[in-house]
Amino acid sequence: MTSGAGIYFDGRTSARRDVRVTLAADTLHIDGADGRPLAQWRYDDVQELTAPAGVLRLGRHDSATLERLEITDVAFASAIDVRAILVDRTGALQRRQRASVIGWTVAATASLLAVAYFGVPALADRLAPLVPVAAERKLGDAVDLQVRARLDNRHLGAGFACGAAPSERAGRAALDKMMRRLSDAAQLRMPLTTEVVRRREANAVTLPSARIYVFEGLIKTAANPDELAGVIAHEIGHVAHHDGTKAVLQAGGLSLLFGMLLGDFIGGGAVVVAAKTVLQSSYSRRQETAADAYGAALMKKAGGDARALGTILAKIGGATEPGMAILRDHPETRARIAAIDRIAGPHPAHPFLDAADWAALQHICAR
Ligand SMILES: [Zn+2]
Questions:
Q1: Ligand 1 center to 204 CA (angstroms)
Q2: Ligand 1 centre from 327 Cα, in Å?
Q3: Cα dihedral 70, 74, 79, 82 sign
Q4: Quick one: pLDDT at residue 216?
Q5: What confidence score (pLDDT) does residue 295 get?
Q6: CA of 282 to the centre of ligand 1 (A)
Q7: How far is the C-alpha of 330 from the C-alpha of 16, rounded, in Å?
Q8: Which of 94, 238, 286, 335 counts the most CB atoms within 10 A of its CB?
Q9: 88-92, 153-157, 212-216: which range is least confident on average?
Q10: How far does the centroid of ligand 1 lie from the alpha carbon of residue 142, in Å?
């Protein structure tokens, strides 16, 4: 629907004119009944004014006059809505703005009280599981851009992620197979996104919004598909326990907390700090132990070899994430391996991926 009837007030006289409104590419044309053009408004300039129910009343931003246009045809009103996205017939926009101001005030007060009572780390622990999926996704996207830029130290850009080149696609398909098996067993509230990136370290990183970066070096270190799947299962443990979100909330502090509560990330500086944290600091021992337990149980549930997480931990000195500085043969690593073995059941009959898929996955960064 690109044209319809309206009533136009030019704002200078009290004349009420029946007009024809035509929706062009980026302007709205207002023509008199005689076909004479009266006004042309850019959609960018159009704003909704308060009006009685059933009337869409429009004006122009920063207009000095009381010029306005009224539409009563619902179908045509919604056609205008689609084009001029600021337009909001029901006044819901104004209500939202008001609600957002109230929201800010409530959130600010609640946060200050909570910080005084719990301190930021404990508060982050309590809040992270309550963060709505949509807000966690936004936070994840914001942090992801920063983290990716920092990880990509060779400035490979789009080529930083493996699996897109023709020679790497079979590897990507094999990884997808592995991830499907793990995520079917995990049943998380958010779909997992996994990417292999060109970094030599035997590490992986988990960001808010269930995003896992597996470093190429980890695949090179893994002796078999179960070892790789084991570390990824450990990372899924961090996802399930919201550890990435907790870390980011702790590092980003209050401004991020507000952003999260309101689903809006204005605090760009806080996101930079948060991204740095994801890469440089490590989770607590308690969080690592919990992720091991989760990972081992998940491997078992998915029909994999849960002990494989232990065997690869021994090789990489227990440091599954960048920033972890646990030495090889450290008693703590041995204790973690023993704990994993206690969870693991009998060895499964088959490896996590068949030989062909595993060979393909080992060449996911072939380009
Ligand atoms: Zn970990």
A1: 8
A2: 15
A3: positive
A4: 96
A5: 97
A6: 8
A7: 84
A8: 238
A9: 88-92
A10: 22
- CA 140 to ligand 1 center in whole angstroms: 18
pLDDT of residue 276: 76
Find the 283 Cα to ligand 1 centroid distance in Å: 7
* Residue 183 CA, ligand 1 centroid: distance in Å: 18
Q: Contact at 8 Å (CB) between 222 and 312?
A: yes
Query: With contact defined as beta carbons under 8 Å apart, do 204 and 232 qualify?
Result: yes
Q: How many A from CA of 229 to the centre of ligand 1?
A: 14
Q: Token pair 């909001």 is at which residue?
A: 88
Q: What is the mean pLDDT of residues 307-335?
A: 77
Q: Ligand 1 centre from 36 Cα, in Å?
A: 70
Q: Which residues are within 8 A (CB) of 4 and not within 5 positions of it... i.e. 6 or more apart?
A: 20, 21, 71, 73, 75, 76, 79
Centre of ligand 1 from the C-alpha of residue 365, in Å = 23
d(CA 134, CA 367): 35
Separation of 346 CA from ligand 1 center, angstroms? 24
Per-state percent for the chain, helix, strand, coil, to nearest 5? 55, 15, 30
pLDDT tens-place string over residues 187-211: 998 899 999 999 998 999 888 889 9
**Three-class SS of residue 130?**
helix
Topology, domain 3-90: PH-domain like (2.30.29)
User: Residue 239: which of 352, 123, 133, 120 has the closest Cα?
Assistant: 133
Every domain of the chain and the residues it spans: 3-90, 125-362
Residues surrounding ion ligand 1 at CB below 5 Å: 288, 291, 320
